[in-house]
Amino acid sequence: MISKPRLVSVAFLILLAASHEALADGVDPAQPLPPGHPSVTAPTASADPEQPGTQAGEPLPAGHPAMPPREPPQDRATPAGDLRPGTIEVHIHDGSDNPIAGAPVRLGIMKQDVAEGDSRSERTATTDVRGVAVFEGLAIGTAYSYRVTVQRDPAAFASEPLRLSETGGERVLLHVYPVTRDLREALVGARGVLFIQPREDVFQVEESFQILNIGTNAWVPADVHFQLPDGAKAFRAGEGMTDARFERSPSGNVELHGTFSPGQHDVSFQFQLDNRHDRRRSFRLALPPHVAELRVVSEGGRDLVLTADGFPESEPMRGQDGSRLLVTGRHLVRGDAPLEVIDVTLDNLPVPSSGRWYAVATAVCFAALGLWKALGRRGSGERARGQAEDRRGAEKLVLDELVALEKLRRDDAVGPRTYQETRSTLLGALARLHAADSS
Q: Is 359 helix (H, G, I), strand (E, B) or coil?
């Protein structure tokens, strides 16, 4: 079985290998984009100063602002040998790389201590006329990590966590942008990967997206949500270095939260659907807005067939450990309808016999009970001498299987239903052993 990190790596290698060609050559400039979609081509030189990033006379899709003229400036944190150890010098700039004076800056401090437990604290400062705030006298060592944050309206602009060394301080450059909550005012698009991993009792589904903001405003989603399939369970959002994330609301919807500043943001979530052991299974999976490119990947044996409505025929490939994967994907071109949902079908799924679920447990039970019944065929003297030893042997056989089952469940090697049913069978055998002992 491919591990989750390996699956994610394979999927994004597939996605990124095709993304350059998709973004550069996959759009016919003569056709309009789907309503509400940003352009997926690189900005071109502008012939109109009022419309940077567009060709003169070529309109953008309805509701979209002009394309940005250049890449957004990059945040960074770099070691600074000219600063005293224990010092973090913070530079706050706007989207045009101009210093921002009078900006409140928060320095989050986290201490990780195995003996005393983790603790959090913070310090605050305000930038001077050069857009600089300095924090001094900070603790050094791997137990301490720091993060710079600037709050503007509903947005939070933050650096990656950093640690201080004994050879100098750190210099942090952080950019703060105008904020919009209206998706129509943000040049935001997405490309993603959907993984479906058939397991014994469930289908593990993961949706991973790269949210690309190519505008000049930071976007904070407002009421951006979609539904999971009926019966979805075990929802878990992916962890990231920023506040950009998916959450599941009390109503069961998946909601997109956080600050999406100009640049790329990786977000993901996963959930499970029961495997009813049908030979054919279909899924309707909802997507976040403005998905311009999507790959669908499923793990499966040589007989498995993966189809996705509106997508090309899937092709086989090998994972890093040699496991078979099926892959299909597409990127939108001008005139395509938006990708809001995708219907995926898996055919020729394995349908295991129910007897296989209980084969190990049943064999163990028969072996344990056989040991006990063998006592009855002995003479009274022999039975008396061997009774305690044989009972302990029979019980140990069942208990060892229970321990092994718990380890398999902890490692997610068996599904919840198989775990419960096998555990119940083993506990029943143990109870019968005790009943025979007392009779």
A: helix
